[in-house]
Amino acid sequence: GENVEQHPSTLSVQEGDSAVIKCTYSDSASNYFPWYKQELGKRPQLIIDIRSNVGEKKDQRIAVTLNKTAKHFSLHITETQPEDSAVYFCAANTGGFKTIFGAGTRLFVKA
Amino acid sequence: EAQVTQNPRYLITVTGKKLTVTCSQNMNHEYMSWYRQDPGLGLRQIYYSMNVEVTDKGDVPEGYKVSRKEKRNFPLILESPSPNQTSLYFCASSYREGTEAFFGQGTRLTVV
Prior knowledge:
The structure holds 2 protein chains of 2 kinds.
Chain A: E1 4-7, E2 10-14, E3 19-25, E4 32-38, E5 45-51, E6 56-59, E7 62-67, E8 72-77, E9 86-93, E10 99-101, E11 105-110
Parallel strand pairs in A: 2-11
Antiparallel strand pairs in A: 1-3, 3-8, 4-5, 4-9, 6-7, 7-8, 9-10, 9-11
Chain B: E1 4-7, E2 10-13, E3 19-25, E4 31-38, E5 42-51, E6 54-57, E7 65-66, E8 76-78, E9 87-94, E10 102-103, E11 107-111
Parallel strand pairs in B: 2-11
Antiparallel strand pairs in B: 1-3, 3-8, 4-5, 4-9, 5-6, 7-8, 9-10, 9-11
């Protein structure tokens, strides 16, 4: 069946460094790829998304890249800050109406 | 204020006792869905609804039921809860499929 693999499961960086989280998806009909941030005890919230007709999108310190041929997409956070510490989920909207999430990456930003 | 509201936030129940978790959105969204979140497994979709009276199974529908009689409400029903349904549940709504999902506050369910 369709699935989304996310790596790494845990990532620890020094404040000011960059963080990269990678996801691969299986359904070639997927056309929408959102990223959600979930702080401890809170609900997931969208931080950035990309559609299949775009290769890269940037919003201040956050960027997402998409490689449709390889079926993978990545989240890049530059100049990380302690408030970036959270769990990040990638997701892929399948060719149907389903949304498949990755297992999540716990990001620690050390001050 | 635009929001998705779930109730209750916390629930402890016994095996086999039917329960309903309510979900309501005030954004006139067409698409609604239910997820369960378990450690190491991320968010797994239980059921989704494309519009009133239109629902379909997600990846883990066994043991759950849903209904969409009104556009704003999408309750999750556990007819006979079992301990393996102990989890954190999120309802979410989107303007339509393939757009940003707005999540409710979550419902932490424990089945003993």
